[in-house]
Known about the structure:
Strand content of chain B: 25-35%
Oligomer: heterodimer
Number of helices of chain A: 12
Helix content of chain B: 25-40%
Number of helices of chain B: 9
Largest sheet of chain A: none
Number of domains of chain A: 2
Helix content of chain A: over 70%
Structural class of chain B: alpha+beta
Order of helices and strands of chain A: HHHHHHHHHHHH
Number of strands of chain B: 18
Amino acid sequence: MIYLFLICIFGFYKRKGLKSSVTTSDLFLFDRLKKGDDTVFDFIFKCYYPGLVVYASQFVLDQMCAEDIVQDVFLKFWEKSKTLEISTNLKGYFFLSVKNGCLDFLKHQKVLDKYRLQVLSEGDIPNALDVDYYVESELKNKIDLAISKLPDRCREIFILNRIEHKTPKEIAVMLGISNRTVETQIGKALRLLRADLEDYLSLGALAFLLINK
Amino acid sequence: MQKIIIMELNEDINDGLLARFFLGAESEDDKIVLEEWINHSPENASLYKDIEKLKLSLQLLEKIEKVDSDAGLERIRQLIRKRNRPVNVFRILRNIAAALFIPLLVYSTFYSLSSSKKVNYSLLTETVVPNGVRSKITLPDGSTVWLNSGSKLQYPSTFNEKARNVKLTGEAFFEVKKNPLWPFKVEMGKIGVVVKGTSFSCMAYPEENIIETTVVTGKVGMISNGKTEKEFEVLMPNAQVTYNKDNNTYVKKVVDASRYIAWRNGKLVFNDEPFAQVVRKINNWFNVKIEIQDKELLDYKYKATFENESLYQILELLKMTAPIQYRFIKAKANKDGEVNHDTIIVYKRKKGAA
């Protein structure tokens, strides 16, 4: 299992640059899957499921429906896994399938959603719903690493705010400093994070923000 | 005001303002300053955009981390198992029997009616509805009966002797054809129900210590099945009698009858009932086996209505409203390739654990 995990991490890093081609890790996973290794299915599921659900809920705006759509995709994947020949990478395959599932779902919805459907399917919004935002391990590793590099005071305050959801006021009381200092430290953290995450932030447009509005 | 803006533009933006924007806590004044600052240079605009992306990424990450992938995986496994279930000869035979049942019933009714009326016999027919299924049948007199999961109804293939007697185990909703001369009687162990033409619901599961009768329309007489049949209560619409088998007492109250027959339309309803009954209902409804590990959970009462929710969704909702936790034990196939129930163990959630 650990070996598998390493292979996948390796795959994620390698993937940069060859977006739509099959990766070695994908081929390896597929090989195991065809031989009936159930742990591989579980592994793939846990890698992609959370991100796919959030991705789908950007389309259908409902967590339950999003989960159903993603589960359906995985069920089909499982059924086909013994015979499936992949021509794209797993990530591409899953995100495309979920997107199609969502569009199908919206097609059967009321007129109200027709507009939404049109926007989403025609939507030549560049990099719309860029899938890179949704693969938890990639996103999380990058951000966690960047946060860990912040200066001590700055990091402490940023974590109190983001992870423990404390307001600047609460943090100020907790640490015995002024509200203004807390805000300044958060601002400083933002600048540093931005500098550190430059590559990642330059990735996609924020098209799905538009969709949410 | 004007002065402040100019100062900020020249000096690059203040960290505090950036933080307030990131936290969504900017004031009206902040907004004006921010807009001026963004328009001031492409670098400023790019910094603003990046902060917005960062904010969004963190929000998405939080959402992603909240998704319960274990539960999702469990659901997938369940679906996969369903598709993989080995062909069960018994099940096929049962389906064939079910399909043939009504035509045979019609035929036998017709046959017994058209054949010599002097012969006064009747065959006892039994309809069994397994767990996970609900069924609707028509009795020889034209009355309709809906049977809930895990129920059994016995009745003669023809009603005669001016009586319409049936025997119920489980839960059923009756819509009785009016016939003042032939009373319709439902036997449920120690007690029973006599009507002439009404609709009502009865619940008498052997594993439960209560027998419940709820009236929807018309008048329903409650009888005790001793040596001499005795009518002890007459119920009007929305009245409900809950009879306790252990101490032979009963409680009469007024309820919203529609909640007690909603299962007919595929709704799973809990009416402020104890956990033991909730579990029995879920077991019958989904054909699973839930085991309660901590006896103190039995004191919890639930009130809820479910329509299209899956077993998993219901368990999750129950988990949210009571300190319970559960785990699945996969159904295993035995030697004959027959798969028994999935078992779900429910236990008390320890304090502090999520």
